[in-house]
Amino acid sequence: MRGGHGWNQTDFMTQTYRIEPGGFLNGLVRVPGDKSISHRSIMLGAIADGVTEVTGFLEGEDALATMNAFRAMGVCIEGPLQGKVTVHGVGKYGLKAPIQPLDCGNSGTSMRLLAGLLAGQRFSVTLTGDDSLRKRPMERVVRPLREMGAQVASQANGLPPLVLDPVSKLKGIHYALPMASAQVKSAVLLAGLYAEGETSVIEPEPTRDHTERMLRAFGCAVEREGNVIRLSGGAELTATPIHVPADISSAAFFLVGASIAPGSDVLLPDVGINPTRTGIIDILKLMGANIELQNQRVMGGEPVADIRVRHAQLRGIEVPENLVALAIDEFPSLFIAAAHATGRTVVTGAEELRVKESDRIQVMADGLRNLGVSATSTPDGMVIEGGATMGGGVIESHGDHRVAMSFAMAALRATGPIIIRDCANVATSFPGFTELASRAGLGISCQ
Ligand code: S3P
What we know:
It is a single chain. By secondary structure, the chain is α+β, with helices and mostly antiparallel strands. The protein has 2 domains: 11-33 and 245-446, Enolpyruvate transferase domain (UDP-n-acetylglucosamine1-carboxyvinyl-transferase, Chain), CATH 3.65.10; 35-243, UDP-n-acetylglucosamine1-carboxyvinyl-transferase, Chain (Alpha-beta prism), CATH 3.65.10.10. Helix content is 29%, strand content 27%. The protein has helices at residues 9-14, 35-47, 61-72, 108-118, 139-147, 182-192, 210-217, 248-260, 279-286, 331-339, 360-370, 401-410, 433-440; strands at residues 2-3, 6-7, 17-19, 26-28, 49-55, 76-81, 84-90, 102-103, 125-128, 151-153, 162-165, 170-171, 174-176, 195-196, 198-202, 222-225, 228-232, 242-243, 265-272, 290-299, 302-310, 343-347, 374-378, 381-386, 393-396, 418-421, 444-446. It has a 4-stranded mixed sheet with strand order 25-26-3-27. The protein has a 4-stranded mixed sheet with strand order 4-19-21-20. The chain is globular and about 60 Å long. The chain starts with a strand and ends with a strand. The structure holds shikimate-3-phosphate. Residues 36, 109, 181-183, 186, 208, 328-329, 352 line the site of shikimate-3-phosphate (S3P).
């Protein structure tokens, strides 16, 4: 929709990618900081005593939504400037009532973790978000928080906005998570900081453990025994420096792009390889990928490596269900890998994909079929017949950042250009994606 004077506001808000077919990826690709860890660095830094210096912070819209929420609650936060952020902690009870609803934008992590962290505060607060977030299920956090004694109201069907009102006290609970969700686990643990007695969470499957690791770094004793994680209410947090590694979920697009495109050879430095996040590497290796972890080390309590990935002929597999939660954000790109693998790939046990930024099972299956790939959605996954020629075509990303970036990589092996609509939300997790991908060899441009 071009106006006489160039792009109008709608174009800017929605953004379309055009990717020329073919090519390969090469060289050093430094992806931005981890989104999950960036959120948590602000949240824990804000309620700690003292000043928390964060480096490697993700300057993406989701993490910035968390930052703005704490600024609106009176926390002085400097930056971000080249990944550096300084959080002047106000202590557990130092937050102030915001004068308007806190806007979590597109970010489920902001809304669900904030719900837990704010459930025990002494003021009322409303949490809202964009059109996508306002369609995402919140009863999964509302239910355990109410069990803890919190006053939390959602809209009909458990949807946002959430309204939290103060209560005299929260009590610790022992909560068996009905689904593998790090956001729900984290919401309960953060509320547990404000509760009387012990709070514990039982996970059906291991999920990302950044909250637990970072709470320990801030001096709070969090214990793990098998699939039970527990902490005691009343703990105070003490500021500590946080280094945010590069996000393996952003690296994933390059792991898949380089794997499928002959001639590719990419080095991704300083990527977080926390074992609760490395399902993408395990699954790609089962498919025959050529991925090497170099220079493994621990930085700020999180394991990190430089990851080298070279092209390899992938083969279809049945994805083991025990790897699903460990790769939950990487399925959009894994579906692309499967389309370019020989033989059939079957994904099961991944029904959580239906309640992400979009219904990632439906949206990815629709997109793959548009490009001529045989992809059949199932209630909890997908069956993809790989190895056929992928054509070009138009993809609706439904405003889902990971869908957009995954289809961008698919063009490396397509026979015609791929046009992807509604890509502005790539900025929620991966600012600078088009420049970085283009420098690495992807024929991508914004229209
Ligand atoms: C996240 C947890 C996951 C993930 C999301 C980030 C987190 O969500 O999909 O992108 O930072 O805790 P669920 O808890 O809904 O699985």
